[in-house]
């Protein structure tokens, strides 16, 4: 089997995907038109030309602007449904989807509108496509901890639809310690917790995410490699890192895919996984991320299978579901 065919054939779980980052320009234009919202672009080509990022902030500015056309539950449904169709194409059978409620509630869109649209798409994806999913409510770390507390409160009536709480947006200058109290409350309320750390920020932020936020998983974490003691901890605790190779390349976290550290971390025994982060902006969905690292780093077939196995081990699926998918991978 050709290596790209093996990648396509492997069942995979996606653990780091921002639903607002899966907003393709074609759908953005369609929704902007039906909602009669102005966007500062004349064509899809013009939008794509603006996707010329040099760091996380230059991306986030465009990403938040794009999300501003989303107004109604149907818009959130259409956004999520388009992503589920990509999952089906890429054999992503389970996904844990981040959404940023504050990006919408701060514009006057009700929390309920967002969750209604996303949740209905999740239910339909399971019924019609057989894809399971969980929602991760992410706090924007450039905003205050009080604002995160307010969001946690708004989520209370919808707690049965949200399994996980996360932390994203501008990392440097907004350490995990800023959110220690609200994460503690979220954990008390029964949420599992994840946080972006060590994407642009230092390895110290990964320590804080582990020790202060008590996360079950680290998003990105690629800068952990700069700290040997942290690496030993990640390995001994089997702490998953949700690595996003094309994102790292687009946001200049790495200069060249051949220099990406995912293979080195895998070989050292870190529970690394492959994910697409914001695929509409970074040039590809799950399989494109696998193809990019397989080609640039000459990954073996065994390493590719290991990464797919990790995606289920690092997921929040029940154990019997994990075992079912891992057995299928081992049978390929
Ligand atoms: N929000 C969407 N994508 C993000 C990323 N890669 N890092 C931090 N916040 C994000
Ligand atoms: Zn992310």
Structure characterization notes:
This protein has 17 helices and 8 strands. With 332 residues, it is of the alpha/beta class. An 8-stranded parallel sheet has the order 1-2-3-4-5-6-7-8. It is globular. The termini are close together. The model has no long low-confidence stretch (mean pLDDT 98). It binds adenine and zinc ion. Zinc ion (ZN) is lined by residues 16, 18, 168, 196, 219, 277. Its cofactor is Zn(2+). Zn(2+) binds at residues 16, 18, 196, 277. It catalyses: adenine + H2O + H(+) = hypoxanthine + NH4(+).
Tags for this model:
eight-stranded parallel sheet, adenine deaminase activity, binds zinc ion, globular, zinc ion binding, binds adenine, TIM Barrel, 332 residues, 51% helix, alpha/beta, Metal_Hydrolase
CATH superfamily: Metal-dependent hydrolases
What is the general shape? globular
The average pLDDT score comes to 98
Level-1 CATH class name: Alpha Beta
CATH architecture: Alpha-Beta Barrel
Strand/helix succession: HEHHHHEHHEHEHEHEHEHHEHHHH
Q: Tell me the number of structural domains.
A: 1
The neighbouring-strand order within the major sheet is: 1-2-3-4-5-6-7-8
What percent strand? 5-15%
| Distance from first to last alpha carbon | 10 Å
Structural class: alpha/beta
Helix content: 40-55%
The molecules bound to the chains, other than polymers, are: adenine, zinc ion
- Output the CATH topology: TIM Barrel
What oligomeric assembly is this protein in?
single chain
What value does the Rg take, in angstroms? 19 Å
- Catalogue the unreliable spans: none
Count the helices. How many?
Answer: 17
Specify the biggest β-sheet. 8 strands, parallel
Number of strands: 8
